[in-house]
Amino acid sequence: MDLSIAVILGYLIKFLLISAVAVLTVVYFYIRHNHGYWKKRGIPYEKPMPFVGSLSFLMRKSWYDYLSDFAKKFPQEYVGMFLGHKPALIVQSARLARNILVRDFEHFEDRYIYASRSTDPIGSLNLLTAKNPIWSYMRREMTPMFTSARLKMITELMNGNAQELVKKIKRDTEDHKEIKLKEIFSMYTSDTVAYTIFGLRMSALSGGDCPLWYITNNMVRFTFWRGLEFTLHFLVPVMARIMRLRFFSNKATEYARNMFWSVVNERKEKGQYEERDLVNRLLVMKENMTLPTDGDPNLHDNLMLAQACVFVIGSVDTSSTTLSLCLHELAYHPEIQDEVIAEVERTHQETGKEVLEFEDLLGMKLLTACILETLRKYPPVPHLDRICIKEYKLDDKLVVEKGTPVFVNVGAIHHDPQNYPEPMEWRPERFIASQEGDNRQFTFIPFGEGPRFCIGKRYGMLQVRAALAQLMRNFRVEPHNPYDVESDPYALTLAPARGGRVKFIPRT
Protein backbone atom coordinates (compact mmCIF):
# COMPACT_ATOMS: atom_id res chain seq x y z
CA MET A 1 0.00 0.00 0.00
CA ASP A 2 2.79 2.40 0.96
CA LEU A 3 4.60 1.51 -2.27
CA SER A 4 1.48 2.24 -4.33
CA ILE A 5 1.08 5.64 -2.68
CA ALA A 6 4.73 6.43 -3.33
CA VAL A 7 4.34 5.49 -7.00
CA ILE A 8 1.20 7.63 -7.33
CA LEU A 9 2.91 10.57 -5.63
CA GLY A 10 5.89 10.14 -7.93
CA TYR A 11 3.67 10.28 -11.03
CA LEU A 12 1.79 13.27 -9.59
CA ILE A 13 5.00 15.20 -8.95
CA LYS A 14 6.24 14.41 -12.48
CA PHE A 15 2.91 15.53 -13.92
CA LEU A 16 3.02 18.79 -11.98
CA LEU A 17 6.62 19.46 -13.01
CA ILE A 18 5.87 18.74 -16.67
CA SER A 19 2.75 20.94 -16.49
CA ALA A 20 4.71 23.77 -14.88
CA VAL A 21 7.44 23.54 -17.52
CA ALA A 22 4.83 23.48 -20.26
CA VAL A 23 3.01 26.52 -18.88
CA LEU A 24 6.26 28.46 -18.45
CA THR A 25 7.32 27.51 -21.98
CA VAL A 26 4.03 28.72 -23.43
CA VAL A 27 4.24 31.95 -21.41
CA TYR A 28 7.86 32.45 -22.46
CA PHE A 29 7.13 32.08 -26.17
CA TYR A 30 4.01 34.24 -25.87
CA ILE A 31 6.07 36.99 -24.25
CA ARG A 32 8.86 36.53 -26.77
CA HIS A 33 6.35 36.83 -29.60
CA ASN A 34 4.83 39.93 -28.01
CA HIS A 35 8.28 41.44 -27.55
CA GLY A 36 8.61 41.59 -31.31
CA TYR A 37 5.71 44.05 -31.47
CA TRP A 38 7.70 47.22 -32.14
CA LYS A 39 10.29 45.50 -34.31
CA LYS A 40 7.57 44.34 -36.72
CA ARG A 41 6.37 47.92 -37.02
CA GLY A 42 9.83 49.37 -37.62
CA ILE A 43 9.68 51.51 -34.46
CA PRO A 44 12.85 52.00 -32.37
CA TYR A 45 12.47 50.36 -28.98
CA GLU A 46 14.36 49.30 -25.91
CA LYS A 47 15.21 45.61 -26.02
CA PRO A 48 13.05 43.91 -23.39
CA MET A 49 13.94 41.20 -20.90
CA PRO A 50 11.81 38.08 -20.41
CA PHE A 51 8.79 38.59 -18.14
CA VAL A 52 9.76 42.13 -16.94
CA GLY A 53 10.10 43.75 -20.35
CA SER A 54 11.68 47.21 -19.92
CA LEU A 55 11.05 47.34 -16.17
CA SER A 56 14.15 45.60 -14.83
CA PHE A 57 15.21 48.91 -13.23
CA LEU A 58 12.31 48.97 -10.76
CA MET A 59 13.18 49.66 -7.12
CA ARG A 60 16.83 50.23 -8.10
CA LYS A 61 16.43 53.40 -10.15
CA SER A 62 13.64 55.96 -10.02
CA TRP A 63 11.10 56.19 -12.83
CA TYR A 64 12.21 59.83 -13.21
CA ASP A 65 15.83 58.80 -13.83
CA TYR A 66 14.77 55.98 -16.13
CA LEU A 67 12.78 58.33 -18.36
CA SER A 68 15.66 60.84 -18.37
CA ASP A 69 18.12 58.16 -19.47
CA PHE A 70 15.58 56.82 -21.96
CA ALA A 71 15.36 60.20 -23.70
CA LYS A 72 19.14 60.40 -24.01
CA LYS A 73 19.36 56.86 -25.38
CA PHE A 74 16.44 57.34 -27.80
CA PRO A 75 16.18 61.00 -28.90
CA GLN A 76 13.37 60.21 -31.38
CA GLU A 77 9.88 61.74 -31.23
CA TYR A 78 8.43 58.42 -30.11
CA VAL A 79 9.88 55.10 -29.00
CA GLY A 80 8.54 51.69 -27.98
CA MET A 81 8.99 49.96 -24.63
CA PHE A 82 7.40 47.04 -22.78
CA LEU A 83 5.55 47.07 -19.48
CA GLY A 84 6.19 43.42 -18.74
CA HIS A 85 4.78 41.76 -21.85
CA LYS A 86 2.61 44.74 -22.87
CA PRO A 87 3.85 47.10 -25.60
CA ALA A 88 3.72 50.80 -24.65
CA LEU A 89 4.58 53.97 -26.55
CA ILE A 90 6.76 56.79 -25.18
CA VAL A 91 6.10 60.18 -26.78
CA GLN A 92 8.93 62.72 -26.48
CA SER A 93 8.04 65.80 -28.55
CA ALA A 94 5.90 68.85 -27.88
CA ARG A 95 4.12 68.37 -31.19
CA LEU A 96 2.90 64.88 -30.38
CA ALA A 97 2.17 65.80 -26.77
CA ARG A 98 -0.19 68.51 -28.03
CA ASN A 99 -1.97 66.04 -30.31
CA ILE A 100 -2.45 63.39 -27.62
CA LEU A 101 -3.31 65.69 -24.71
CA VAL A 102 -5.53 68.18 -26.56
CA ARG A 103 -6.18 67.96 -30.29
CA ASP A 104 -7.04 64.25 -30.41
CA PHE A 105 -8.14 63.90 -26.79
CA GLU A 106 -11.16 61.77 -27.74
CA HIS A 107 -8.72 58.93 -28.49
CA PHE A 108 -6.99 59.33 -25.09
CA GLU A 109 -9.65 60.30 -22.56
CA ASP A 110 -8.57 57.90 -19.82
CA ARG A 111 -5.37 57.26 -17.93
CA TYR A 112 -3.64 53.90 -18.07
CA ILE A 113 -3.44 53.66 -14.29
CA TYR A 114 -5.17 50.74 -12.54
CA ALA A 115 -8.52 51.54 -11.00
CA SER A 116 -11.04 49.00 -9.71
CA ARG A 117 -14.28 50.14 -8.09
CA SER A 118 -14.90 46.66 -6.68
CA THR A 119 -11.63 46.29 -4.74
CA ASP A 120 -10.48 49.91 -4.30
CA PRO A 121 -13.36 52.39 -4.63
CA ILE A 122 -11.45 55.31 -3.07
CA GLY A 123 -8.43 54.72 -5.29
CA SER A 124 -10.51 54.38 -8.45
CA LEU A 125 -13.04 57.22 -8.08
CA ASN A 126 -10.74 60.22 -7.62
CA LEU A 127 -10.02 62.77 -10.34
CA LEU A 128 -6.62 61.28 -11.10
CA THR A 129 -7.76 57.71 -11.75
CA ALA A 130 -11.47 57.91 -12.61
CA LYS A 131 -12.67 56.97 -16.09
CA ASN A 132 -15.37 58.68 -18.10
CA PRO A 133 -18.17 59.55 -17.50
CA ILE A 134 -17.40 59.82 -13.76
CA TRP A 135 -14.20 61.77 -14.42
CA SER A 136 -15.82 64.48 -16.57
CA TYR A 137 -18.72 64.90 -14.11
CA MET A 138 -16.42 65.21 -11.09
CA ARG A 139 -14.08 67.56 -12.92
CA ARG A 140 -16.93 69.91 -13.69
CA GLU A 141 -18.19 69.83 -10.11
CA MET A 142 -14.74 70.35 -8.53
CA THR A 143 -13.53 73.23 -10.73
CA PRO A 144 -15.27 75.99 -8.69
CA MET A 145 -13.00 75.11 -5.74
CA PHE A 146 -10.04 76.71 -7.51
CA THR A 147 -11.30 80.10 -8.67
CA SER A 148 -9.28 83.24 -7.91
CA ALA A 149 -11.91 84.30 -5.39
CA ARG A 150 -11.49 81.09 -3.37
CA LEU A 151 -7.70 81.20 -3.60
CA LYS A 152 -7.73 84.74 -2.22
CA MET A 153 -9.76 83.46 0.72
CA ILE A 154 -7.11 80.91 1.73
CA THR A 155 -4.02 83.07 1.10
CA GLU A 156 -4.17 84.32 4.68
CA LEU A 157 -4.07 80.74 5.93
CA MET A 158 -1.14 79.85 3.66
CA ASN A 159 0.77 82.88 4.93
CA GLY A 160 0.07 81.91 8.52
CA ASN A 161 1.37 78.41 7.91
CA ALA A 162 4.42 79.83 6.12
CA GLN A 163 5.17 81.87 9.24
CA GLU A 164 4.94 78.68 11.31
CA LEU A 165 7.35 77.09 8.82
CA VAL A 166 9.86 79.88 9.47
CA LYS A 167 9.51 79.42 13.24
CA LYS A 168 10.01 75.65 12.91
CA ILE A 169 13.20 76.11 10.87
CA LYS A 170 14.53 78.67 13.37
CA ARG A 171 13.90 76.31 16.28
CA ASP A 172 15.51 73.36 14.53
CA THR A 173 18.49 75.47 13.44
CA GLU A 174 19.06 76.74 16.98
CA ASP A 175 18.79 73.19 18.32
CA HIS A 176 21.19 71.92 15.62
CA LYS A 177 18.56 69.49 14.34
CA GLU A 178 18.80 68.03 10.87
CA ILE A 179 16.22 69.63 8.59
CA LYS A 180 14.90 67.34 5.88
CA LEU A 181 13.34 69.63 3.30
CA LYS A 182 10.85 67.16 1.86
CA GLU A 183 9.54 66.31 5.33
CA ILE A 184 9.28 69.85 6.68
CA PHE A 185 7.59 71.12 3.51
CA SER A 186 5.19 68.18 3.65
CA MET A 187 4.27 69.37 7.15
CA TYR A 188 3.68 72.89 5.83
CA THR A 189 1.47 71.73 2.98
CA SER A 190 -0.38 69.30 5.27
CA ASP A 191 -1.29 72.13 7.61
CA THR A 192 -2.69 74.11 4.67
CA VAL A 193 -4.57 71.14 3.25
CA ALA A 194 -6.14 70.39 6.64
CA TYR A 195 -8.04 73.64 6.43
CA THR A 196 -8.60 73.62 2.67
CA ILE A 197 -10.27 70.20 2.79
CA PHE A 198 -11.66 69.82 6.30
CA GLY A 199 -11.83 73.39 7.62
CA LEU A 200 -9.60 72.33 10.52
CA ARG A 201 -6.86 74.57 11.87
CA MET A 202 -4.05 72.32 13.03
CA SER A 203 -0.29 72.48 12.88
CA ALA A 204 2.22 69.70 12.46
CA LEU A 205 4.89 72.43 12.26
CA SER A 206 4.20 73.69 15.80
CA GLY A 207 4.30 70.18 17.22
CA GLY A 208 0.58 70.07 17.99
CA ASP A 209 -1.85 67.26 17.36
CA CYS A 210 -2.27 67.01 13.59
CA PRO A 211 -4.22 63.98 12.38
CA LEU A 212 -3.75 64.98 8.76
CA TRP A 213 0.03 64.68 9.12
CA TYR A 214 -0.49 61.02 9.97
CA ILE A 215 -2.51 60.59 6.78
CA THR A 216 0.00 62.52 4.65
CA ASN A 217 2.94 60.63 6.07
CA ASN A 218 1.36 57.33 5.08
CA MET A 219 0.42 58.59 1.61
CA VAL A 220 3.68 60.19 0.46
CA ARG A 221 6.43 58.35 2.35
CA PHE A 222 7.77 55.72 -0.02
CA THR A 223 9.14 52.54 1.48
CA PHE A 224 10.18 49.69 -0.81
CA TRP A 225 6.73 48.09 -0.60
CA ARG A 226 4.76 51.34 -0.90
CA GLY A 227 6.89 52.34 -3.89
CA LEU A 228 6.28 48.98 -5.54
CA GLU A 229 2.52 49.25 -4.94
CA PHE A 230 2.38 52.72 -6.48
CA THR A 231 4.57 51.75 -9.43
CA LEU A 232 2.45 48.71 -10.26
CA HIS A 233 -0.66 50.89 -10.27
CA PHE A 234 0.81 53.14 -12.94
CA LEU A 235 2.99 50.76 -14.97
CA VAL A 236 1.68 47.20 -14.51
CA PRO A 237 -2.02 47.58 -13.66
CA VAL A 238 -2.73 43.92 -14.41
CA MET A 239 -0.48 42.96 -11.48
CA ALA A 240 -2.08 45.58 -9.25
CA ARG A 241 -5.44 44.03 -10.09
CA ILE A 242 -4.27 40.47 -9.38
CA MET A 243 -2.68 41.54 -6.08
CA ARG A 244 -5.73 43.69 -5.17
CA LEU A 245 -3.50 46.66 -4.33
CA ARG A 246 -4.77 49.97 -2.95
CA PHE A 247 -3.93 53.33 -4.52
CA PHE A 248 -3.83 54.90 -1.05
CA SER A 249 -2.39 52.84 1.79
CA ASN A 250 -4.93 50.98 3.96
CA LYS A 251 -3.94 52.91 7.08
CA ALA A 252 -4.18 56.30 5.39
CA THR A 253 -7.52 55.43 3.77
CA GLU A 254 -9.15 54.36 7.02
CA TYR A 255 -7.77 57.34 8.92
CA ALA A 256 -8.97 59.73 6.20
CA ARG A 257 -12.39 58.03 6.14
CA ASN A 258 -12.86 58.44 9.90
CA MET A 259 -11.67 62.04 9.83
CA PHE A 260 -13.84 62.96 6.84
CA TRP A 261 -17.07 61.55 8.25
CA SER A 262 -16.34 62.96 11.70
CA VAL A 263 -16.23 66.46 10.20
CA VAL A 264 -19.31 65.82 8.05
CA ASN A 265 -21.40 64.48 10.95
CA GLU A 266 -20.35 67.30 13.27
CA ARG A 267 -21.44 69.89 10.72
CA LYS A 268 -24.76 68.18 10.15
CA GLU A 269 -25.44 68.09 13.90
CA LYS A 270 -24.55 71.75 14.42
CA GLY A 271 -25.99 72.95 11.14
CA GLN A 272 -22.77 74.93 10.55
CA TYR A 273 -20.89 74.90 7.27
CA GLU A 274 -17.57 76.43 6.23
CA GLU A 275 -17.88 77.92 2.76
CA ARG A 276 -14.15 77.88 2.10
CA ASP A 277 -13.34 74.19 2.33
CA LEU A 278 -13.68 71.11 0.16
CA VAL A 279 -15.93 69.18 2.54
CA ASN A 280 -18.64 71.79 2.14
CA ARG A 281 -18.30 71.73 -1.64
CA LEU A 282 -18.55 67.94 -1.65
CA LEU A 283 -21.66 67.95 0.53
CA VAL A 284 -23.38 70.40 -1.81
CA MET A 285 -22.28 68.29 -4.76
CA LYS A 286 -23.72 65.12 -3.20
CA GLU A 287 -27.12 66.75 -2.65
CA ASN A 288 -27.33 67.68 -6.33
CA MET A 289 -25.54 64.66 -7.79
CA THR A 290 -27.09 63.23 -10.95
CA LEU A 291 -24.65 60.36 -11.54
CA PRO A 292 -26.39 56.96 -11.60
CA THR A 293 -25.22 54.65 -8.82
CA ASP A 294 -25.24 51.52 -11.03
CA GLY A 295 -26.49 49.55 -8.06
CA ASP A 296 -23.70 50.76 -5.76
CA PRO A 297 -25.36 52.33 -2.68
CA ASN A 298 -22.00 53.74 -1.50
CA LEU A 299 -20.98 55.38 -4.78
CA HIS A 300 -21.78 58.98 -3.87
CA ASP A 301 -20.17 58.71 -0.43
CA ASN A 302 -17.06 57.07 -1.88
CA LEU A 303 -16.84 59.77 -4.55
CA MET A 304 -16.66 62.46 -1.89
CA LEU A 305 -13.98 60.71 0.15
CA ALA A 306 -11.97 59.88 -2.98
CA GLN A 307 -11.67 63.56 -3.96
CA ALA A 308 -10.54 64.51 -0.46
CA CYS A 309 -7.83 61.82 -0.50
CA VAL A 310 -6.44 62.67 -3.93
CA PHE A 311 -6.36 66.36 -3.05
CA VAL A 312 -4.18 65.52 -0.04
CA ILE A 313 -1.61 63.53 -2.00
CA GLY A 314 -1.65 65.86 -5.01
CA SER A 315 -1.13 69.11 -3.13
CA VAL A 316 1.37 67.80 -0.57
CA ASP A 317 3.74 65.64 -2.65
CA THR A 318 4.45 67.83 -5.68
CA SER A 319 4.55 71.14 -3.77
CA SER A 320 6.97 69.84 -1.15
CA THR A 321 9.27 68.49 -3.88
CA THR A 322 9.19 71.78 -5.80
CA LEU A 323 9.99 73.80 -2.67
CA SER A 324 12.88 71.47 -1.79
CA LEU A 325 14.46 71.66 -5.23
CA CYS A 326 13.92 75.40 -5.67
CA LEU A 327 15.79 76.07 -2.42
CA HIS A 328 18.52 73.65 -3.55
CA GLU A 329 19.02 75.69 -6.73
CA LEU A 330 18.88 79.04 -4.93
CA ALA A 331 21.58 77.79 -2.56
CA TYR A 332 23.83 77.11 -5.56
CA HIS A 333 22.94 80.41 -7.27
CA PRO A 334 23.59 83.10 -4.60
CA GLU A 335 23.41 85.95 -7.13
CA ILE A 336 19.86 84.96 -8.08
CA GLN A 337 19.02 84.42 -4.43
CA ASP A 338 20.10 88.01 -3.73
CA GLU A 339 17.76 89.24 -6.45
CA VAL A 340 14.83 87.22 -5.08
CA ILE A 341 15.44 88.54 -1.56
CA ALA A 342 15.56 92.09 -2.96
CA GLU A 343 12.28 91.51 -4.82
CA VAL A 344 10.57 90.21 -1.68
CA GLU A 345 11.81 93.14 0.42
CA ARG A 346 10.84 95.65 -2.28
CA THR A 347 7.33 94.20 -2.46
CA HIS A 348 6.92 94.51 1.32
CA GLN A 349 8.12 98.13 1.21
CA GLU A 350 5.93 99.12 -1.75
CA THR A 351 2.78 97.54 -0.31
CA GLY A 352 3.49 98.53 3.28
CA LYS A 353 2.29 95.08 4.36
CA GLU A 354 3.94 92.79 6.86
CA VAL A 355 2.30 89.78 5.19
CA LEU A 356 1.82 89.74 1.42
CA GLU A 357 -1.62 89.06 -0.03
CA PHE A 358 -2.78 87.15 -3.12
CA GLU A 359 -2.03 89.81 -5.76
CA ASP A 360 1.27 90.72 -4.09
CA LEU A 361 2.52 87.13 -4.28
CA LEU A 362 1.47 86.81 -7.92
CA GLY A 363 3.20 90.10 -8.75
CA MET A 364 6.71 88.91 -7.85
CA LYS A 365 8.00 87.98 -11.31
CA LEU A 366 11.43 86.66 -10.38
CA LEU A 367 10.14 84.50 -7.52
CA THR A 368 7.55 83.03 -9.90
CA ALA A 369 10.22 82.50 -12.57
CA CYS A 370 12.35 80.55 -10.06
CA ILE A 371 9.42 78.24 -9.33
CA LEU A 372 8.61 77.71 -13.02
CA GLU A 373 12.24 77.02 -13.94
CA THR A 374 12.43 74.50 -11.09
CA LEU A 375 9.33 72.78 -12.46
CA ARG A 376 10.93 72.75 -15.91
CA LYS A 377 14.21 71.24 -14.80
CA TYR A 378 12.66 68.95 -12.19
CA PRO A 379 9.09 68.06 -13.27
CA PRO A 380 7.68 66.34 -10.14
CA VAL A 381 5.47 64.08 -12.28
CA PRO A 382 7.84 62.77 -14.98
CA HIS A 383 5.20 61.33 -17.29
CA LEU A 384 1.59 61.83 -18.37
CA ASP A 385 -0.13 58.49 -18.92
CA ARG A 386 -2.99 57.80 -21.28
CA ILE A 387 -4.52 54.71 -22.85
CA CYS A 388 -5.66 54.65 -26.45
CA ILE A 389 -9.41 53.97 -26.35
CA LYS A 390 -9.86 53.77 -30.13
CA GLU A 391 -7.44 53.23 -32.99
CA TYR A 392 -5.34 56.32 -33.68
CA LYS A 393 -3.10 57.31 -36.58
CA LEU A 394 -0.06 58.91 -34.96
CA ASP A 395 1.65 59.64 -38.28
CA ASP A 396 2.17 58.02 -41.68
CA LYS A 397 4.35 55.33 -40.08
CA LEU A 398 2.39 54.22 -37.02
CA VAL A 399 -1.21 53.45 -36.12
CA VAL A 400 -1.65 53.13 -32.34
CA GLU A 401 -3.91 50.19 -31.52
CA LYS A 402 -6.78 50.39 -29.06
CA GLY A 403 -5.62 49.46 -25.56
CA THR A 404 -2.03 50.66 -26.05
CA PRO A 405 -0.59 52.66 -23.12
CA VAL A 406 0.91 55.99 -24.21
CA PHE A 407 3.27 57.97 -21.97
CA VAL A 408 4.27 61.57 -22.60
CA ASN A 409 7.87 61.87 -21.37
CA VAL A 410 7.69 65.28 -19.71
CA GLY A 411 11.40 65.43 -18.85
CA ALA A 412 12.38 64.68 -22.44
CA ILE A 413 10.38 67.71 -23.62
CA HIS A 414 11.58 69.98 -20.80
CA HIS A 415 15.22 69.00 -21.38
CA ASP A 416 15.22 69.19 -25.16
CA PRO A 417 17.96 71.71 -26.13
CA GLN A 418 15.82 72.83 -29.06
CA ASN A 419 13.24 74.00 -26.55
CA TYR A 420 15.64 75.19 -23.84
CA PRO A 421 19.34 75.72 -24.74
CA GLU A 422 21.64 74.13 -22.12
CA PRO A 423 18.60 72.52 -20.50
CA MET A 424 20.34 71.25 -17.38
CA GLU A 425 21.33 74.80 -16.44
CA TRP A 426 18.88 76.38 -13.97
CA ARG A 427 18.03 79.77 -15.47
CA PRO A 428 14.94 81.53 -14.10
CA GLU A 429 15.29 84.28 -16.72
CA ARG A 430 13.77 81.82 -19.20
CA PHE A 431 10.40 82.46 -17.51
CA ILE A 432 10.71 86.06 -16.38
CA ALA A 433 8.21 87.28 -18.98
CA SER A 434 5.96 84.18 -18.94
CA GLN A 435 2.41 84.00 -17.69
CA GLU A 436 1.68 81.21 -15.20
CA GLY A 437 -0.69 79.37 -17.56
CA ASP A 438 1.60 79.55 -20.60
CA ASN A 439 2.61 76.07 -21.80
CA ARG A 440 5.06 77.66 -24.28
CA GLN A 441 3.80 75.70 -27.27
CA PHE A 442 3.61 72.51 -25.16
CA THR A 443 7.30 72.66 -24.22
CA PHE A 444 6.33 73.31 -20.57
CA ILE A 445 3.81 70.85 -19.15
CA PRO A 446 4.65 70.06 -15.49
CA PHE A 447 0.93 70.11 -14.62
CA GLY A 448 -0.17 68.27 -17.73
CA GLU A 449 -2.32 69.94 -20.35
CA GLY A 450 -5.69 69.59 -22.02
CA PRO A 451 -8.92 68.49 -20.31
CA ARG A 452 -7.02 66.35 -17.77
CA PHE A 453 -4.52 69.00 -16.65
CA CYS A 454 -3.95 69.28 -12.89
CA ILE A 455 -6.99 71.00 -11.42
CA GLY A 456 -5.01 72.19 -8.38
CA LYS A 457 -2.24 73.91 -10.39
CA ARG A 458 -2.97 77.45 -9.18
CA TYR A 459 -3.46 76.26 -5.59
CA GLY A 460 -0.10 74.49 -5.64
CA MET A 461 1.70 77.48 -7.13
CA LEU A 462 0.19 79.77 -4.50
CA GLN A 463 1.30 77.70 -1.53
CA VAL A 464 4.83 77.43 -2.97
CA ARG A 465 4.95 81.23 -3.49
CA ALA A 466 3.74 81.91 0.06
CA ALA A 467 6.41 79.65 1.57
CA LEU A 468 9.28 80.97 -0.56
CA ALA A 469 8.36 84.60 0.15
CA GLN A 470 8.52 83.99 3.91
CA LEU A 471 11.69 81.90 3.69
CA MET A 472 13.57 84.45 1.58
CA ARG A 473 12.61 87.24 3.98
CA ASN A 474 14.03 85.37 6.96
CA PHE A 475 16.89 83.21 5.68
CA ARG A 476 19.69 82.85 3.23
CA VAL A 477 20.31 79.30 2.06
CA GLU A 478 23.65 77.68 1.29
CA PRO A 479 24.49 74.31 -0.27
CA HIS A 480 24.53 71.18 1.83
CA ASN A 481 24.22 68.36 -0.73
CA PRO A 482 26.12 67.83 -4.01
CA TYR A 483 24.64 69.82 -6.88
CA ASP A 484 23.41 66.83 -8.90
CA VAL A 485 20.20 65.74 -7.18
CA GLU A 486 19.87 62.05 -6.37
CA SER A 487 16.26 60.88 -6.68
CA ASP A 488 14.47 58.39 -4.43
CA PRO A 489 14.40 55.03 -6.29
CA TYR A 490 11.19 53.98 -4.50
CA ALA A 491 9.15 57.00 -5.61
CA LEU A 492 7.24 57.08 -8.87
CA THR A 493 7.11 60.88 -8.73
CA LEU A 494 10.34 62.85 -8.37
CA ALA A 495 11.52 63.08 -4.77
CA PRO A 496 15.03 63.99 -3.57
CA ALA A 497 16.73 61.04 -1.89
CA ARG A 498 16.88 61.31 1.90
CA GLY A 499 14.64 64.38 1.80
CA GLY A 500 17.04 67.01 0.47
CA ARG A 501 19.12 69.49 2.51
CA VAL A 502 20.27 73.11 2.51
CA LYS A 503 21.90 75.23 5.23
CA PHE A 504 19.58 77.91 6.62
CA ILE A 505 21.35 81.12 7.66
CA PRO A 506 19.05 83.53 9.56
CA ARG A 507 19.05 87.03 8.02
CA THR A 508 17.98 88.80 11.19
Automatic annotation (TrEMBL):
Major place of residence? endoplasmic reticulum
Subcellular location as annotated: Endoplasmic reticulum membrane; Microsome membrane
Annotated catalysed reactions: an organic molecule + reduced [NADPH--hemoprotein reductase] + O2 = an alcohol + oxidized [NADPH--hemoprotein reductase] + H2O + H(+)
Q: InterPro entries per the record?
A: Cyt_P450, Cyt_P450_CS, Cyt_P450_E_grp-IV, Cyt_P450_sf, Insect_CytP450_Detox
Named from the GO MF annotations, one term is:
oxidoreductase activity, acting on paired donors, with incorporation or reduction of molecular oxygen, reduced flavin or flavoprotein as one donor, and incorporation of one atom of oxygen
Q: Which cofactor does it need?
A: heme
Protein's membrane topology: Peripheral membrane protein
What general EC class does the enzyme of this chain belong to?
oxidoreductase
Q: Which UniProt keywords apply?
A: Endoplasmic reticulum, Heme, Iron, Membrane, Metal-binding, Microsome, Monooxygenase, Oxidoreductase, Transmembrane, Transmembrane helix
The UniProt annotation places heme binding at C454
This entry's Enzyme Commission designation comes to 1.14.14.1
Query: Which sequence ranges are marked TM in the entry?
Result: 6-31
Q: Which GO terms describe its cellular component?
A: endoplasmic reticulum membrane
**What function does this protein fulfil?**
May be involved in the metabolism of insect hormones and in the breakdown of synthetic insecticides.
Task: Spell out the family assignment given in the record's similarity comment.
Answer: Belongs to the cytochrome P450 family.
Q: What is this protein called?
A: unspecific monooxygenase
Annotated gene: CYP332A24
